[in-house]
Design a protein that fits this description.
Elements lengths: L1 H30 L7 E15 L4 E5 L2 E9 L1 H11 L3 E11 L5 E12 L12 E2 L2 E2 L18 E5 L4 E13 L2 E15 L15 H5 L2 E13 L4 E14 L9 E11 L1 H51 L1
Antiparallel strand pairs: 1-2, 1-3, 1-13, 3-4, 4-5, 5-6, 6-7, 8-9, 9-10, 10-11, 11-12, 12-13
Helix pairs in contact: 1-4
């Protein structure tokens, strides 16, 4: 009986020892993914801010500027693209809606972001765009990969339509979570006008051609990223925009269109931290707790099997 029990324990030990790496390296990439139908809203504020009055074309200091960012999963489009690329894909229809202190629209920029559901690597497909303009993203946007590493990443900037390194700057503690802090600085760059802007009597899509006035932008982008989930729990930007030259400015060289330190609204930070903390436990279950638990259980069962086998041999002798 002891020999039979030791064989059963040995089989179980092998099973759990084999299950440990399978769970981490096979099941984890296939089961832990961004859901295709996810919906997320984020509100950011610059308080105070400098904002251009497009009626008078004078820059004014205002109490606040609000940016509402929405990410909406497009399930129909993700299924269409999955059939052509043969892997799980997420399509986010995104919108950045900027409004002044009176609630009136300043600008809005839609995006379509297509990416791998597990790795967050961009997937190039028809419809990938910023403000209706086709783009080919390189690197990440909005979210880091699961199990984020302590290194620099390529991060896509929607204003310039280009990617640039976002630098790992160290490990910090934020609201009780260990996070990785990243920074990216985009130098002054000429960028297109948003297609929707409150400019009386002027079509924003042809504004530069009509007036010769160009739009320039720079920002310092900061993210606090929870590394297990790859989800930012806080984000800030020190953001500046200018209009330069041309007939629109009435002889002036440049005027500030927007300047401010943009931060996530505190209630959205609280909600994000709570959500990420719960998701973190699920990812750790797949990547650490269960694999190591199964490996430890396999070792214990192997030890018990060997002990029973040794005892059964002594009894036989």
């Amino acid at each position: 009986m002891r020999r039979r029990a030791s064989l059963v324990l040995l089989a179980l030990a092998v099973f759990f020892a084999a299950l440990s790496p399978l769970l981490r390296w096979y099941a984890f990439p296939r089961l832990v993914k961004i859901p295709p139908g996810q919906y997320q809203e984020m509100v950011l504020e610059a308080k105070p801010a400098t904002l251009l009055d497009y009626g008078t074309l004078q820059a004014e200091e205002v109490e606040k500027v609000t940016i509402v960012q929405t990410l909406k999963g497009n399930v129909e489009e993700s299924e269409r693209i999955e059939r052509s690329v043969g892997r799980d894909v997420v399509v986010w229809d995104c919108l950045s809606y900027i409004e002044g202190p009176d609630g009136a629209m300043v600008s809005q920029i839609p995006e379509r972001y297509v990416f791998d559901a597990h790795s967050q690597a961009p997937v190039h497909a028809t419809g990938e765009s910023v403000d209706g303009e086709a783009v080919r993203r390189e690197g990440i946007e909005f979210k880091w990969p699961f199990l984020t590493e302590k290194r620099d990443y390529e991060y896509f900037d929607a204003q310039t339509r280009t990617s640039a390194p976002i630098h790992y700057k160290g490990t910090r503690t934020f609201r009780g979570l260990e996070v990785y802090y990243f920074e990216q600085t985009i130098p002054w760059t000429k960028v297109p006008y948003p297609k929707k802007m409150p400019i009386p009597g002027i079509d924003a899509t042809t504004l530069e051609q009509q007036t010769g006035t160009t739009r320039w932008y720079t920002t310092k982008r900061m993210f606090w990223v929870e590394p297990v989930t790859g989800a930012p729990v806080n984000g800030e930007e020190i953001h500046q925009e200018e209009l330069r030259g041309g007939t629109l400015l009435g002889g002036r060289d440049k005027v500030t269109a927007f300047a401010g330190h943009v931060k996530m609204r505190p209630d959205y930070v609280d909600h994000t931290v709570e959500l990420v903390a719960s998701q973190r436990r699920l990812v750790l279950l797949m990547t650490s707790h269960l694999p190591w638990g199964f490996l430890t259980l396999g070792g214990a069962l192997l030890t018990l099997a060997l002990v029973l086998e040794a005892r059964s041999r002594r009894v036989s002798v």
